[in-house]
Design goal:
It is a single chain. With about 260 residues, the chain is α/β, with parallel strands linked by helices. About 45% of the residues lie in helices and about 15% in strands. It binds nicotinamide-adenine-dinucleotide (NAD). Nicotinamide-adenine-dinucleotide (NAD) binds next to helix 1 and helix 4. Nicotinamide-adenine-dinucleotide binds next to helix 1 and helix 4.
Length: about 260
């Protein structure tokens, strides 16, 4: 059984967060720990994952850290078993591990395409394969949130692999929502706009005027903090979202609601 305090509306089962060492994944792990959910922090960066797990523990929950390359799917079964054992149950999943694979198509090599699709999309699919059994064991109320992007709906000349992976994530999300609905497991996605994380930092640093351009195209006039994506993720994992499955929630400060005339 999961331990730690849990507020009404949040199941007590453990949540696996991939990419949990940084940005949206880190914020999600902490947001979930805040409401008493045991959390597993998986990341390529094992030391940073451990530091986030320590922060979660300081909020009073069981937390587990693991150095995992989610693209190496042959290892996922063992990591999921270890995580379920450490947390006591596994009834939540946030796929926040991601890479941008930025390259115009003339410069796009096979390795960049494969790495982008492997981390952003294939890993999520193969993790569902491993999570079906623990989710069923955890019972109705289990839920997953995949981090897609507004780029899952739109094209970008600089991001053909990324946009493809994020559109694929939405297809995977809908397919898993149908497959797992009879078990009472919900599956949704969030589509963030621009978020202040290490992923976006190089673009803001290297492209003059890019931040101003993004902010001026966003009705709320700024990029979001990771917390502002983590809280909607936490909501979708909670019983407050009990009739929401197969949906994507756009969290972009209004950017895609308006045209750039
Ligand atoms: N930052 C944005 O503006 C933005 C917008 C929309 C969607 N997203 C998506 O949000 C998710 C989180 O990104 P972020 O902005 O927090 O970036 P980030 O770089 O801060 O975090 C991504 C994390 O994923 C980890 N990771 C990468 N490859 C991995 C692998 N093979 N195995 C395990 N971990 C791996 C990294 O080590 C890092 O800790 C990504 O899927 C990203 O595409 C980000």
């Amino acid at each position: 059984m999961a331990t730690g305090p849990s507020r009404l509306g949040w199941p007590r089962t453990g949540v696996l967060v991939t990419g949990g060492a940084s940005g949206i994944g880190r914020a999600s792990a902490l947001a979930l720990a805040e409401v008493g959910r045991p959390v597993a922090v998986w990341d390529l960066d094992g030391d940073a994952a451990q530091a986030v797990a320590d922060e979660c523990r300081s909020l009073g929950v069981v937390a587990h850290a693991a150095c995992v390359d989610v693209a190496v799917t042959s290892g996922l079964s063992d990591h999921v078993a270890a995580t379920a054992g450490a947390l006591g149950s596994l009834g939540g999943f946030v796929h926040a591990a991601g890479v941008s694979g930025a390259a115009i198509v003339e410069d796009l090599d096979d390795a960049t395409w494969d790495a982008t699709l492997d981390v952003n999309l294939r890993a999520a699919a193969m993790l569902f394969r491993e999570l079906v059994t623990p989710f069923r064991a955890a019972g109705p109320g289990s839920a997953a949130v995949l981090v897609s992007s507004i780029e899952g709906h739109f094209g970008s000349a600089m991001l053909p692999a990324y946009c493809s992976s994020k559109a694929g994530v939405l297809g995977l999300m809908r397919s898993m929502a149908q497959h797992l609905a009879t078990d009472g497991v919900r599956v949704n996605a969030v589509c963030p706009g621009a978020v202040d994380t290490p992923m976006l930092a190089p673009a803001f640093d290297l492209l003059p005027g890019f931040r101003d351009q993004v902010e001026s195209r966003t009705p709320l006039g700024r990029v979001s903090t990771p917390d502002e994506i983590a809280r909607p993720i936490r909501f979708l994992l909670s019983d407050e979202a009990s009739f929401i499955t197969g949906a994507h929630l756009t969290v972009d400060g209004g950017m895609t609601a308006v045209t750039a005339i």
